[in-house]
Design brief:
Keywords: Glycoprotein, Membrane, Receptor, Transmembrane, Transmembrane helix
Helix content: 25-40%
Number of strands: 18
Protein name: Scavenger receptor class B1
Distance between the termini: 51 Å
Largest sheet: 14 strands, antiparallel
Shape: elongated
Order of helices and strands: HHEHEEEHHEHEHHEEEEEEEEEHHEEEHH
Family: Belongs to the CD36 family.
Pfam families: CD36
Organism: Eriocheir sinensis (Chinese mitten crab)
Radius of gyration: 37 Å
Strand content: 25-35%
Number of helices: 12
Length: 500
């Protein structure tokens, strides 16, 4: 009996230890794996993450589509512009972060990022940089906007300049000149006297003269002091906030807050039905993108996040971004405050998610698959594996100060060009990450399942032994003394004789 009891106790104890031990191991393995993963993600000197941070190891492309105004002479007489979209003109983009300075006490790194663009004719079918495009004279419009805030004398002087230099509200230039190379613009020299801007003093203008330039110093969190704000922007150009926008509805300064990351990486883990924040320098503001759906990329399941329509809608909460009533429209933001007063309106391409009257007026055709900004984020690491940032640049057409040059033009927001800046991590790289993220958990899960099963089996064996032992004891006959049985038998015989 003692031997059976010992066996049962040993089986039960070992079974419980196997179950409890395996479940405890799985609990702590999850946290150990998270800790190891987060340590690997930290931006630290000498780390592989730092190398990828300095120069993204994936191809980045910038595609331009320009809007050619086919009836510019009629527009000067009051007709609505007719637009012809031409493109894409595709450039490969190289990014390099340099002048890195770590602050280990704060857990940040400060850097400059240089962007260089190389034209890819092989990815620009049917178009060439020598193509001629007619578009709005942005310099003339900028001068009109600036001088309309001054006295009529300035407007008269500007009109004299326009006549002297033969300037009109529309120009025809090659795509190469309009984008990166620039073209000679005599008005810029006149504008330089008013603005003291060294860029104007060059006398050359281009819409995207940003080749081999940086956008100012960024300071971001490295994760060294915690991962909750990993790669969030702590400061831009040395400031924790920008100062371009008005107070918000409640008198606060939320519209000038720098929230989130630059978009390449986010604090992990990423949850479904959540949102992530990022600062978009082209818009001079922070935005939030929200979870839309799961998408597959190679072996990985990614969470697609898109820009909700209310982000650029006209609501009381977004009034602080309104510069004037004319450009305060759905899908648009007037970035003049952060463009030295230049009348530039950024929007979604083809006014996607914008007002229907603006779309129909210019014959635009917004399509989500072509014009929607999205980020596909791997939820375990917070890494963006596929992204497309799509933004359109526009110039307001206005009759500034009733100047003769602008007197008959229709007042509207005119699209100039839109860009698709995109990057995709090659599919073959997804398999290695999938193995890294899933193989350890699969092995641990299988191992835990085996140990739990064995533990349950041992406990069941112990229970079976107890049940069998009890059943065997119930069927066994009671022991009787031999002498008493014999005595009882003799007595029974005598009694039977007496009765007979």
């Amino acid at each position: 009996m003692m031997q059976l009891r010992t066996q049962v106790v040993v089986l039960v104890v070992v079974g419980i230890l196997m179950i409890a031990g395996s479940l405890t191991f799985q609990f702590f393995f999850d946290r150990l794996f998270d800790s190891m993963l987060e340590k690997k993600l930290m931006i630290l000197p000498g780390s592989k993450t730092l190398e990828n941070f300095k120069s993204p190891p994936v191809p980045i492309f910038m595609q331009f589509w320009l809007f050619n105004v086919t009836n510019s002479e009629d527009v000067l007489q009051g007709s609505i512009p007719k637009l012809q979209q031409v493109g894409p003109y595709t450039y490969e983009e190289k990014q390099l972060k340099y002048n890195l300075s770590f602050n280990h006490d704060e857990g940040t790194v400060t850097y400059l990022q240089n962007k260089t663009f190389f034209y890819r004719q092989d990815l620009s079918p049917g178009v060439d940089l020598s193509d001629k495009v007619t578009t709005v004279n942005a310099v003339m419009m900028s001068l009109g906007a600036k001088l309309s805030l001054k006295s009529e004398t300035f407007l008269a002087v500007a009109e004299v300049w326009f006549q002297r230099f033969g300037v009109t509200p529309f120009i025809t230039r090659s795509v190469r000149e309009l984008l990166f190379d620039g073209y000679d613009e005599p008005l810029l020299l006149q504008l330089a006297d008013l603005t003291n801007d060294p860029e104007h003093a060059t006398g050359r203008f281009g819409f995207y003269r940003k080749n081999n330039t940086n956008g100012g110093a960024y300071t971001v969190y490295t994760g060294e002091k915690g991962m909750d704000n990993y790669q969030h922007i702590a400061r831009w150009r040395g400031e924790e906030m920008i100062d371009f926008w008005h107070p918000d509805l409640y008198g606060g300064n939320t519209c000038n807050m720098i929230n989130g990351t630059a978009g390449n990486q986010f604090p992990r883990p990423i949850e479904r039905h959540g949102k992530v924040d990022l600062y978009v320098a082209e818009l001079c503001r922070s935005i939030s993108v929200e979870y839309q759906k799961d998408v597959q990329h190679g072996a990985l399941t990614l969470y697609r996040h898109v820009l909700p329509d209310r982000m650029l809608a006209r609501t009381p909460d977004t009034d602080c971004f309104c510069v004037d009533k004319f450009t305060c429209r759905a899908s648009m933001i007037n970035v003049a405050p952060c463009r030295k007063g230049a009348p530039v309106v950024m929007s979604t391409p083809h006014f996607y998610q914008g007002a229907q009257e603006d779309i129909e007026q210019l014959g635009l055709h917004p399509v989500a698959t072509e014009h929607e900004t999205f980020l596909d984020i791997e939820p375990n690491t917070g890494v963006t594996f596929r992204a497309a940032k799509r933004i359109q640049a526009n110039i307001p057409l206005k009759r500034y100060g009733d100047m003769p040059s602008f007197r008959d033009i229709p007042e509207l927001v005119l699209p100039v060009f839109w860009v698709n800046e995109s990057a995709v991590v090659p599919v073959e790289r997804t398999h290695a990450l999938h193995r890294t993220l899933n193989l350890p958990f699969m092995l641990v899960t299988v191992g835990v399942a085996v140990l739990v099963t064995l533990g349950v089996v041992l406990i069941l064996v112990a229970l079976v032994k107890v049940v069998l032992a009890r059943r065997g004891g119930a069927k066994k006959p009671k022991n009787r003394r031999p002498g008493k049985d014999k005595e009882k038998s003799v007595t029974e015989k005598l009694n039977s004789r007496n009765y007979s």
